[in-house]
Amino acid sequence: MNAPSTPQFCLRLLRRQLVLAIRRPIEIGNPLLFFAMVVALFPLGLGPAPDKLADFAPGILWIIALLSNLLTSDSVFRSDYDDGSLEQLLLSPQPLYLSVLSYIGAHWLVTGLLLALVSPLFAVMLNLPAAGIAALFASLLLGTAVLSLVGGIGAALTVGLKRGGMLISLLILPLYMPVLIFGSAAVKAAVIGAPAAPYLAILGAMLSLAIALAPVAAAAGLRISVDA
What we know:
Blueprint: H1 6-23, H2 25-46, H3 50-72, H4 78-82, H5 85-91, H6 96-110, H7 112-125, H8 130-158, H9 165-191, H10 197-227
Helix pairs in contact: 1-6, 2-3, 2-7, 3-7, 3-8, 3-9, 6-8, 6-10, 7-8, 8-9, 8-10, 9-10
């Protein structure tokens, strides 16, 4: 039997991670449940005034999306490290860069993409003006991909630690801040009638840079963690 080509191998790896996620629906449901709970709690803390909620909605939604992504970052490589699959992956002839990109892509599909898809519903709950919903969706599509890529670096560096969740937060939370700033700024600009495209372009540039560099850093982190 011939060995699969690199694209076939990466697609199979991506499909495997998605199937494993579907078999563990709690991993998919946790970020969405966290998103819904925090969105429901903010009106209790800020008051139900529609104008006040609308003013804070872009920042609120983006902060919750960031924390939801951070909640699941530790699990990107964890299960494969525990069962020894990750060591076999490091020994395979396939480029580790693309394998890591498959892991991170699967993580984004089951977290960031789903959060972006349900964000319009939560935006309506917080009385976000309709003009900002499209910008929110677009910024979350781009921004959560960056968050997953950066989170993959932290996950790779801490995968060998039994309790690496808090350490991941300390390592990557500062790198999340630019995404939060430009993501919420894009929504605010759309709400006031200003162009959101410049902020989305910056998020797109961040995503391009993250795709180029984050898998390289994550691959190096995996080699360090497994060898240790």
